[in-house]
Task: structure prediction
Amino acid sequence: MNFTKKHSLLACGILFMCQLGFAQADVVADNNSRVNMGFYIKSITEQASISDIEISLNFWVKDALAVEAEKAGLYISSTGAFLYESMREMRDDYDKGKLDIIVAPPLLISRYFKRDEITDGFSGMLEGRQPDNLLLVVRSDKNINAIEDLRGKRIAMLEGDELSDIYLDTLFLRSFNKSYKKLNPSIQQQAKATRIVLDLYFDKADVGLVYFNSYQVMTELNPDVKNKIKILDSFEVRSKNYSYINKSYPLADEIRRIALSFYKSPRGKQILDIYKTPELDFLKVEELDLVDSLDREHARLLMHAIK
Amino acid sequence: MTVIKPKRTIFLRVFWVFAFLVLAITLFFAFMVIPMQKTALRQIMYAQAETVSKSIVQATSDAIISKDYGFIVEHNVEVLKNNAGIYYLIVSPKQGDKIFVNQKNWHLLAELDSNTAALQGEKISFVITDREQYKNVYHFVYPIRFSSIDWGWLHIGFSTADYDKYIHDMYYKIIYIISASLVMILVVGFFFARWISDPVSTISQLATQVAAGDLTVRSTIARNDEIGVLSDSFNKMVDSLMLSNQALEHYNQELEREVGTRTRELADLNADLDKRIKEEVAKSKTQEALLIHQSRSAAMGEMIGAIAHQWRQPLNALGLVQQNLQLRFKLGKLDESFMVSSMEKSDRLIHKMSTTIDDFRNFFKPNKHIEPFNAYHVIQTTAELLDAQLKRHNIVLTINCPDDLMINGLEGEFSQVILNLINNAKDILLERRPLRPAIDIGVNKTSDQTTRIVVKDNAGGIPEAIFDKIYDPYFTTKDQGKGTGIGLYMSKIIIENNMMGSLQAFNDADGANFVIELQDRPIVKTKPLI
Ligand SMILES: Nc1ncnc2c1ncn2[C@@H]1O[C@H](COP(=O)(O)OP(=O)(O)O)[C@@H](O)[C@H]1O
Ligand SMILES: [Mg+2]
Result:
């Protein structure tokens, strides 16, 4: 029930946003002072509710960004926020020259965009500028000390998080030359990382893949979590979502500068709060290298894997 | 004209009554509202707690059944995140660890503390308590039950801050309302009281001026209500007062004239009256003197009768002595010894008669000195004067009196009273003639200061019809020439005026009793009587 409701809302929101976006985009397509942002929606629903996203995206792009830009002496005449459920669509719109900024998980960006198509952007970060690494966590009492011990264990992971998938798969392929899906019959997909931690805590799963932030939040909520769950391995990643700017966007530097100083204004802070990040950090295109190499390794291992 | 200080009594009364009423009503409502609001709030809290509990249990029911604690924690963390008014939440299954969730963290509890565990019953329960860092927690316990299986309990610790704030707000509001009504009382009450009292005090002031005699004042209050009517009436009243005052003044002058005339007439009359009173007084004095004289004569007459009786026997005896002397002389047998014995006899008889006279003379001798005298002696002597008469009629007189009893007063007057009383008794005894006529005189002290003398006879008493009249002067039932009607009158005057005593009579079975009561104290004689 909850699920369908969420989806219908999402659909409505997207429909609304898209119409809005199209209408404005058509009129001011050639205007240099526009800001159009594309969001890969699956990657942000975990952090915020759909209604928050709707409101904040509108606010962020249409209002806050424009207002902040105006402060910097930049007049933004048109704004647009576009939500995408598939990267393919985002890519298509990007090719049409409709998007100035893209927001999506690094793995997907690296898969769908060439390095010379995009330029440096920004990303969210954790308190204390820590990277939001992807963690492989296990129950302490299950005697799991190496990847080799993971065989046949109950796995809990984030629904639709491709990084988690290829990361775990790579680890399994390295050790067993077999995909984890073949060795482990129990794989639970959870919508929220915190839920994964809880499932491990209450012994509903033995292995979990969570981002550092979720794990940290859970240990803060219940310090006993640290006793029951330990970190077996991790993959370095800045944030779940990376934002890059269209290489051909003329206001790239200005917009980046504005985004990086968002935390200084109350409006900006409000938006950052919704995404649970204290400030935005400068993000180089090269930072896609790590996920890119993982993706390549995974592909290579998969080719040689025991079918 | 004197300056009249305006009285503020009505103003104050109206003001205080108004103040009291407004304040009383305000306070009454305020303090009616407080408990009502409190219960309403508690009910709301209860209902809210129940709703929250129900929704949690409903949302987590699947998880509870499938023992999906992760979901339970997740859901409750979410619930707490969205309800700042909930301090903590405990999911307490009958068996196994309990999940404690608060705004900051969550953890498992092996056991509940005994106080909290005690709240877990079949029904919803709640308590307001302090728990760890939480003060005044509304701790609500909701039993979780699935198809009649008691699974456990859900504890929710609600913050009472909102409730307290509401109550505080309410108190502040009430204080505010009371302050507002105090201000209102002061302001509105002042004007209201003044509106009521001002015209009244104005009129009262005017009335005071009118009362002080100034009839030129008029009320200028023009209002369309009772006070306006009062003001009009006041003016009319003063108008008519002025008219009547003029009329009165006129009458007054008339009256003064009249009074002048009358006064003169009265003065004349007065002078005349004075003269007449003097005349009357003189007349009555003469009458009194006459009365006294008559009384004296009567007494004298009675005395003479008594002397006549006393003398009869010695006179006879003297006659016999004389006849014997004459006979002896004729017979030539008048010798010296007979002569001597006859002379002695004569001398004795004459002496006796002379003594009688002396006695009477003593009796009548004006005795103006108040001095103590022996009661028995005086009564005895007085009775002896009548001895002859009494003996002749076989009347037995007994005197019962202590030898040494002294009476303070005029001896002569007192014996005159006794004589009167004995005489009256003798008269009535002769008239009624009882078988054994007797007169008893008893004297005794009834108290330290009172001496009581009773003269009692057995002639049947004083007729009822004349009881009131016996002391009147000239009242007598006796034949003309026999009674004077002065005896008891004089006796009463002597006893009551001259001796400060009392003379009373009563009848007993035998006859009349005349009672004299005398006080042992110095007598101030008001006027000489006899
Ligand atoms: N002891 C008595 N018993 C009955 N009547 C008496 C007695 N003493 C006085 N009275 C009545 O009181 C009357 C007045 O007495 P009193 O003043 O002495 O005048 P008087 O003896 O000259 O009649 C007598 O006439 C008699 O009727
Ligand atoms: Mg008499």
Q: What stands out?
A: Chain B has a mean pLDDT of 85.
